[in-house]
TrEMBL record, chains A, B:
Name assigned to this protein: LacI family transcriptional regulator
UniProt-recorded Gene Ontology molecular function terms: DNA-binding transcription factor activity; transcription cis-regulatory region binding
CDD domains with a match to the protein in the record: HTH_LacI, PBP1_LacI_sugar_binding-like
Keyword Transcription: yes
InterPro entries: HTH_LacI (IPR000843), Lambda_DNA-bd_dom_sf (IPR010982), Peripla_BP/Lac1_sug-bd_dom (IPR001761), Peripla_BP_I (IPR028082)
Entry-linked SUPFAM superfamilies: lambda repressor-like DNA-binding domains, Periplasmic binding protein-like I
Keywords: DNA-binding, Transcription, Transcription regulation
Organism from which the protein derives: Lacibacter cauensis
HTH lacI-type domain segment(s): 6-60
Record has tRNA processing as a keyword: no
Amino acid sequence: MKFEAVTIKDIAKALGLSTSTISRALRDSHEISAETKQLVLECAEKLNYKPNPIALSLKEKRSRSIGVVVCEIANSFFSQVINGIESIAYDRGYNVIVSQSHESYDREVVDLQFLSSRSVDGLIISLATETTDLSHIKALHDRGMPIVLFDRITEEINTHKVIVDNYRGAYDATEHLIKNGFKRIAALAGSEFLSITSERLAGYNDALKAHGLEYSKEYVQHCYYGGMVFSEVEEAVNKLLTLKKRPDAIITTSDKLTTGCLRTLKRRGISIPDEIGMIGFSNYDIAELVDPPLTVIRQPAEEMGKAATELLLQLVESKRPVKEFEKRVLTPELQVRASAIKR
Amino acid sequence: MKFEAVTIKDIAKALGLSTSTISRALRDSHEISAETKQLVLECAEKLNYKPNPIALSLKEKRSRSIGVVVCEIANSFFSQVINGIESIAYDRGYNVIVSQSHESYDREVVDLQFLSSRSVDGLIISLATETTDLSHIKALHDRGMPIVLFDRITEEINTHKVIVDNYRGAYDATEHLIKNGFKRIAALAGSEFLSITSERLAGYNDALKAHGLEYSKEYVQHCYYGGMVFSEVEEAVNKLLTLKKRPDAIITTSDKLTTGCLRTLKRRGISIPDEIGMIGFSNYDIAELVDPPLTVIRQPAEEMGKAATELLLQLVESKRPVKEFEKRVLTPELQVRASAIKR
DNA sequence: GTGAAAGCGCTAACAG
DNA sequence: CTGTTAGCGCTTTCAC
């Protein structure tokens, strides 16, 4: 089952030259005569020679590959981010190695360890829900591994970061609900430890405050697994529905929470937006086709992936250690549809 | 920006032993004394030694990574497949390198060439729409590269394949429409050259025939880019809508075609299923939340990814050349909802 | 039981 | 201009 590749040696033998000559000719070195180059190139072509990147990696101590860790690939937001990552990586000649944490800290540790030991040149990471201890990432970072964090980030690690303005997104969404006459606005959020959760909830809180609306602790439900487990969402939504002062709208702070919430409401036959208004973070491209058309805060996911990759490759390819890091904050888009407009 | 790793040499130096002894001790060779092993292991632990897989790859001519080529990552079906691939690969200690063809033949060629030259141990491929010439894949296959094809496959390459019973899925879906009183059933399909297109259309045709329904060529519209380009879908749907004998139902043969068709119909204010019934291949997990709830033929995407990976690793790890190949045909599921039921 | 040496494919310093 | 040699990290004969 091996796959015998043509090496520089084969060309050398075929041409009666030394391997170094071949190597130089292939790299178009100026110290090789035009004729020899010509000869070598032709022969390489004929034998279908392909340089062995493994050998190169061993020599150069870089693999031209980058590792990506997300909680889940089969998620509209993350798959779009990966799409963006892949497209830039492709343009720059890098491979993308994808792995999933499934929101598990242990799995994230293993993934990262695996990727770094596989000599990826850099890492693009969105933290797992369970992750509170960051020493595994810090250790890599301290040892010089280029890292870019996106979406679920942490201030504890000083490196490039790419996020959207989560505060703004949630603030605007909440305000949108308020302006549309909703008064008892609940929030369905992910784990409290996630950066996106606190940022988004802060926007939600401040919008309520700014409009003099009451903020009630029981109006904020956390789903530790952020929607990965549907039953958790269902339970949380049900809890909201049984409050004495039942909310008249819900804002959801992530993709899976949004669909989980919608699914629960629809299964219970609750009419949206009449009984309950809905707005949520979501990157589904069919939000407009949903019943009712879903008002969403959409993240420029592909852009985020592209930005993260550009920043990462900047680190990877930098000659000198980078000390100044950038937090790139993109703008989420509020796509207004029927689910959050009282009729 | 380098990342200085501890090597076997460092341990050797620290312990005053030779690198070969260290190597053997680490691999728990029987020709090393228990004490030495103990010593080496402790030292390795202390120095946080991690074997360099690149060096190993160079030696063993395998990289413990597999390459995946799909047309698009940000697609519910493919992201679910990749999820399945990643999970098995992870369990078996392999990395997954993902790349996208974006339905382009040229891009597929480059992707494959890139991946194989990066010494992936095997490839999991779903063909691009544009691909009709298979020589690039054949060449790899002939040179011994383990390959598993899924979803969009070809009979021209004799290797393991994983698909669903596309014929059955389309047949059942069409029959479902017929049994629900639809009589003029159109099909919106992808490129004619794709295996999934012909298989699914065959099921569609045969179901029509079996029920004595007229088959009209103009009822079958092909979108060459299979929904990647929305305008193409829109145009095709519009063409169907302007036929003198306007269809009363449409079956769509892929994820993007399904959403594209639905989007077009909704934008035009056409009521589903009253004016036109709809059924389509789709792996969106929110098909039930769409308006109207969408009847879909759902593929067991994650299973497919898992099966493909298991078959691939079987090839990769086989000692002797494999001559017998398997075509694994999974069963698609018809999820019946409102969009295909006359009311 | 342990070490020396060769080699995986390639590059680069050093000789001619 | 071209060849020789060493070396990237590791395994694996072959010696001792």
